Amino acid sequence: MMNRFLFYLQLGWLDLIRLWPATRQHILIVTGICLPILLLLGLKRGHVAELQKELVKSPTGRQIIFWSAQRGELLSPNSLERLAKELPKIDLAIPDTQRVCNLQGKTKNIAEGITLYSTLPGDPLLKQLGAGLQGNEEEGVILGHSLGKSIGVTLGDTVRVILIRERNGVKETAETTLKVQGLVNTGGDDSRIGFVHASALDRFEKYIRGFRVPEYQWPAIKAAARDGYAGYLLCCENNSNLTPSDKKQLEERGFQLTEATKEYLELFDSWLKPEASEKLRFYTLTSTTGWKKGRDHFHFSPSEISVNTEADDVCIPWNPTKDNGSGVQLIGMTLPKRTWLRSYFQNPALAFHYETPCFSYRAPVYAGETQSINLTSEKSIQISWLNPDPDDFPAFKSFTHQLELFQFPTNPIKSLLSGILLPWAKPNKIVVPADLLAYLHGYEEKWVDYDPEINLFVAVAEDPIYSKIRIYSETIDDVPLTVEALKTKGFAVQSESARISEIHEQDSNLKLLVLITAMGVFLFGIITIVSVLQDSTDRKRGTIGILRVMGVSPFGVFLTVFFRATAIGFLAALLGVAIGLGMEWFLGWKPPATWEWIQWKPIMRVEIHWLDMILVAGGTMLCCLGGSIAPAWKASKLDPFDAIVEGRFR
Amino acid sequence: MLSNIIEEPVLELEGLEQRLTDPERGEEFLVRVPQKFVVPRRGVIALLGPSGCGKTTLLTVLGLLRAPSQPNSLKSFCIWTRNNEGEMEKHDLKKLWFDRNLTQIEHLRRKYIGFALQSGELLPSLTVSENIKAPMHLNGFSKKLANSRVQELLSSFGLSSQGEINSGKSTRLENSRINKLSGGEYQRVALARAIAHKPTLVFVDEPTSALNRDLAWEALNQLRNMQSSHESHGATIMITHDEQLADAFATTIVRMAPVKGMAAGEVIEITQTHQPLKTMDFELPS
Question: What's the pTM?
């Protein structure tokens, strides 16, 4: 029995190798079917996967630009940081800002009007161009090739960034150096652009807007911050008090008017003449919630209020009094130069007027040449005693005692000699210009800062508000979700989502097409293999007949045919895999540039994975096995004599 | 009758009515063996008759290649073979076919029957010696025995001479693929293969069609010498149109003829030629 079994296998094997031309033909046919399938799978894993990866990660496809529009929140760095966490599947969010500046490289020439755009490490747009910020990224810059060439810098060189700001005809410049971390092709020889870290660009912007930039030691512009007030103080004479329509009009403007005559008479007590208590009325003009705090102060001129009232009132910009840190109450009071209110003061020049220097003070009694006001434990400012200029008050010159009124002592000795004021009496209240008190409040509330270099209170820079943000979702498939989330938050959004939907539709159509084609290839592949084996078996009818005549059992015939088919499948699979690997190498091979005759060859990545090799080899074997069952079965059932004779009668 | 003078039959058939149908033409053909047909041990049976009278059909039934169309209508269909102990053993083929015992029929065909058909039908992927060895492999012959039998047959059928063996030519022939053989060599290898496993019955269909007269007569003589020798217990059944060849070699001539007015053929005469069974040499007729 074993002898016979081995003989059947031997017959199959000898049939395979001794009738090589037929075997070779069958192997080639089967290889011709399995090789394209293997290559298709290789292309899918290689070239197609690369294309898909590129498409899915395409910077333009993933990019979403959005802005606040009418309903969206303002886009500050904080809101940007929060949004990047809230929005689904976000890879990167970059403020879409730009700043024009001048650049200087190794050459003496300064390139003017260069536009720097904001970027961040991992910016997909720059990555696509083969560049990106790295290492100490905030000190890096990426320039266009032509710009780099024009200022004579290459990768690793430094460039001087020169910023110019101008206020009231006065120009100021600031500069810093950045290291060239990339040179990119920006799409034109005359393209004069560069990319810097978004934080650096924010600082440039801060400087241009006049703020101080401590990171680069750039000072604020030489201009005091805008003063702001917690409210106003309205002062009227009894015979010209606020009318009901004045009160109504002020309420309609959103003010809360409160009479506070007693309180302010007490505050100004010793400074006023005795008749003031009978003739004057004081009102506070605040917001409906009381004195304003923080950045949200009143900024409009007091005259804008007075001019709209029927009463002959005096409007004083007002901030609550403040201690100077040494027990002296600071009262910020600035009045128009010529106002009836001054005549109720013992000294009409006590209150400052709007052109008075900020760092000044006055008091009814002499209190030294300077006063110190502590801003922090280490930081203080000095204010000086300011004598009024008589020319500022011509209306009072007619009074007989006018000289006395303006005789503020400049030193204690003089005071003693004149006997006008008490030199040892230290004032517990002093008058400062209203704007100084406003700054002191602002400093406390952190919306102004004191710049010792220019001895001015300057505005603290607010967070920049970005006009647009460009964000990148992780893949193009995440874009619609992110766009929807942004729209829900009220932002105006610009993206390629319509194009992405189109791509998806095309992709699914293509997949369906490929699936149908693949099914066709597989189906007809199997049919071809079965037909080949069937044909091969049919050609051996004579041989099979003589085997049957010699007493070979149907099992023996089946085994012989089956073994041969399996061997053909195995050899075809081997050949297919070998050629496939060869094609993988050849398609991916880049010929040397000097071999011009083969430069037509496309370079394509084919990745023949071992799983695909097993799949195709196994599939081929299975097809051959499956395909050989029917022919082998048919062969085993052949009538011996019919098989030989093919006679007329059956 | 032939049966009366034969003491040791190896095949017996009576009452065969083999119906054949041609599905394409819708025709039917009947082959009849009305009388008792016995093949004796060491007998050489020649089947003679015009083309289309059913000789090959009869041969396929006798050679167990085709089932009798109506096994139950057979009066007898038996074969006698020698078992391992050397005793004769009867196999009731009528019953085996009736029971559809194909495994046993296949076994009998493999072990006790040899065929040398008209076109030879050697296995194209095997060499001469491998072809001759094939029936021996199928019947479990040892390698040594098979090799020795191959050399014997090659020598007997003139496929090698002593001189050729010594010079190595025979080695070349026995290792040749069959597509390298001449027609005569091919036919002789087919005859050698038919008797390689020492079958009880050898069926030969037009054995000499590809051979010249000298070679044909020589090959058949050799076949008869080996198959019908005193030591042999086998017999030979051959289909031929050559009356002279039948006269020269057959111990029995079975004539077949078409039946008038019917699509049928039948055995019409079984004649014993009284050829001496032990004759080993012959002379070509002039």
Answer: 0.59
| Interchain CB distance below 8 Å, B138 and A550 | yes
DSSP type of residue A347: S
Alpha helices in A176-258 (DSSP H): 198-208, 244-252
d(CA A583, CA A600): 16
Q: Are A363 and A431 in contact (CB under 8 A)?
A: yes
**Rg, chain B, Cα only:** 19
Q: Could you count the other beta carbons within 10 Å of the beta carbon of residue A466?
A: 23
Q: Render the burial of A6-28: b for 16+ CB within 10 Å, e for the rest.
A: ebbebbbebbbebbeebbeebbe
What's the rounded Cα separation, in Å, for the pair A226 and A328? 25
Instruction: Please name which of A307, A312, A313, A320 lies closest in space to residue A231, comparing C-alpha atoms.
Output: A320
Report CB contact under 8 Å: B121, A549: yes
A11 contact residues in B (CB cutoff 8 A): 123, 125-126
> Does A553 touch chain B if contact means CB atoms closer than 8 Å?
yes
ipTM: 0.84
The confidence score (pLDDT) of residue A259 equals: 93
Q: Does A545 touch chain B (CB under 8 A)?
A: yes
Given a contact cutoff of 8 angstroms between Cβ atoms, the answer to whether B51 and B104 are in contact is no
Q: Measured between alpha carbons, how far apart are the two ends of chain B, in Å?
A: 31
Q: Please name which of B80, B81, B93, B90 lies closest in space to residue B16, comparing C-alpha atoms.
A: B93
Q: Which residue of B has its CA nearest to A13?
A: B125
Question: Considering only CA atoms, which of B233, B239, B248, B177 is closest in space to residue B208?
Answer: B239
**By C-alpha distance, which of B248, B239, B237, B252 is closest to B52?**
B239
Give the CA angle between residues A611, A614, A615 to the nearest 5°: 85
Kindly state whether A597 is in contact with chain B, defined as any CB-CB distance less than 8 angstroms. no
User: Residue-wise pLDDT tens for chain B (286 aa)?
Assistant: 343 344 588 899 998 888 888 777 778 888 888 888 888 888 889 999 888 888 888 888 998 888 898 888 888 899 998 887 878 889 999 999 988 898 899 899 999 999 887 765 788 889 999 999 999 988 888 889 999 999 989 988 888 754 455 555 555 788 888 888 887 888 889 889 999 998 999 998 876 666 677 777 888 888 888 887 777 778 999 888 888 888 888 888 999 988 887 878 888 888 887 655 444 444 444 4
> Cβ–Cβ of A551/B113 closer than 8 Å?
yes
Q: Which residue of A has its CA nearest to B30?
A: A649
Q: CA of A600 to nearest chain B CA: how many angstroms apart?
A: 47
CB contacts of B111 in chain A (<8 Å) are 551
User: The tokens of B94 are what?
Assistant: 């009528």
Specify the pairing of strand A314-318 against strand B9-14: unpaired
Nearest CA to B206 among B192, B193, B191?
B191
* CA A152 from centroid of its chain's CA atoms: 31
